[in-house]
Each structure stands twice: as structure tokens, then as C-alpha cells.
Amino acid sequence: MTQVETTLRGPSGFSLARQALVEMESAGVWPTPLNFELWLHYLGAPDSPLGAEMKRLIEEHEPFTESVAERLAAEFLPRGRLSEEIRDAGAVLNRELSTVSQAIASAQESQRAYGQTLAEASDKFIPDAEPVALKAVVDGLSSATAKVREENAVLERRLEASVKEVSRLREHLEQVRRDALTDALTGLANRKAFDEALDAACDEQDETGAPMTLAVIDIDHFKRFNDTWGHQTGDQVLRYVASVLARIGRTPRVAARYGGEEFAVIFPGELSGMVEAELNAAREEIASRQLRRRSTNDELGAITVSAGIAQRLPGESAQSLIDRADSALYASKRAGRNRVTNARAISHKAA
Prior knowledge:
alpha+beta, two-stranded antiparallel ribbon, Diguanylate_Cyclase, Alpha-Beta Plaits, extended, coiled coil, EC 2.7.7.65, GGDEF_dom, Nucleotide_cyclase, 68% helix, 10% strand, 7 strands
């Protein structure tokens, strides 16, 4: 997730959005979804490559047409670059398939010609044929065999090269897929990856009947910390919390950045009591560290996190599970923060 996307998931996102609309109206740019996204990134990160290009266009009074917007999105926005990667991979794959098809067609033609040569040679093999005639037939067969052998060798080489290229392409696309499902700031799974993993975990539980627990974690007073020390230091805090959660979120668990300063961890096959103990250990580890600002070495003090956990009920929807975990998180906040609340305890109190 970029810095702009992080900003938009907080209170300061509203002022950035309002500024984008004002600037777009001043420049005579229509507030289409794509234009709005481009201007948000331009104003939120003016020193970025996109910011520099947008500034150039504005200073030189170049028309901000739809084609210009599409070019900027394809070149600079993460989703645009991903689309370019996929299109490029498709072009390479089409080229390889075309090469292989041509090689196979050539080999098939050689095989047909070779079959015709064999048929003609059979007709010429008569009992009283002269040695000279037989030699001519044998020479023809030898030449045809050599030609077919060479065609087959060419086909093998092309197939081998194509297999290597397709293998490289598969690895590249797998990396693109991983990048598309990874939060750029923290290295954890992003929201899309989390949604997919949670649906898969729910399906698995429905099939096997094994338990599954979801935890939602939020950094306490993060906005105040961000406003005091700035977004770069705030990013440092996000990465630190993510590093702790990454250790407990190893496969088959899934740790994700849910949005802004909120995280989530999926615990397939685990009861909420076990998860509660492990999250409390992580919470204590996070609170025990005295953070320092990297740029100035200023002491930032300690940070704390609050968490809510919910064990999935049989047949429960993913959204209902998230809602119960969120309710447990809010209970932790109301109770003074820096604690883990089990949704089961809330249910018992309500009962």
C-alpha cells in the first residue's frame, strides 16, 4: 500500500480529497474516477515520478485528456503497471505458441513428404530392378530420412526453448500475482489477499469441521502518534507491528494489513483460547519495546495494540465473523486499550 493510500484511510484523507477536487476544478479537469485517482496521487506524493509528470503537464498547460490520463495510469499507478505486466506476458505467450505451431506444421509437412517418398520407393523396388536404379532409390530414402531428422531436431530445439520461456513466464506471473496480493509498506498480505484467504479458510472449515479463529488488531492512538511524529515515523511503527505479526502469521496462518493501522490474522484449525494466549504474548512484546525515530534517534516511547478475536461458528459467513471480531476489538478499546478480548466473553456477558 502506498503512502497516498495510507493517508486516504485516515482522517487526513478527507482534506486531501477536497484539495484534489479544488485543484481539478481550477485546472479545468473533469472529476472522473481515473482523473480523481491521478490527482490524489499527484497531491499526496508531489515528489513521485507521477507528481513530476503531472506538474510538467500543468505548467506547460497541456490538455488533460482521457488518453493522457490513461497513459499516466498505465505508467505510474500500481494497477496500471500490473495490467501492463499481464499484457506483456500475454504477448510473449502468444509469440511462443505461434513459434511452436509453425514448427509443428513444418514437421508435419516433412512427415507427409517422407511418407510420399517411402511410397514411391516401394513402387520402384521390383525384383529385376537394375543396381543403378536401386541405388537411386536408396539415395533418395537416405536424403529424405536426413531431412526428416533435421526437421525433428529443429522442432525439439524450438520446443525446448519454448518450454524454458513459458517456465520463465510462469515464474514472472507468479511474482506479479504475489506482488498484487502483498501490502507494499509492511510486506504482509493486503486486503484482497486477506478476503480470499478468509473465504478459503471458511470453505475448509465447512468441509473438515476443524475450528478456525480470526483476530483483528489495531494500533492504539496511532493518529495522535502520526500527527506528532509524521507519516514516515508512522510507517516505521506500522512495519514494526507487522514484523511481530508476521512471525505469528506463518503458513498456514495468514497475517494481513487490513487497512490503515489495522491488521488481521487468520488461524485455521485453531481454537480461540489458543489464539488469545498467543496474541497476548505478541501484544506484550510490542509494548515492551522503546521505539526511536530513525532520522533523529529521538525516543518515541512505547506503542500498544488492542485486539479482538472470534472463533467461527458453524456455517457463519465471513462478514459475520469479521463483525464479531471487530466488536471484540472495540470492547478492548472501551476497556482501556492494550488488551485482547475474546468475542466469546462478550457473548457470555450478554447472556
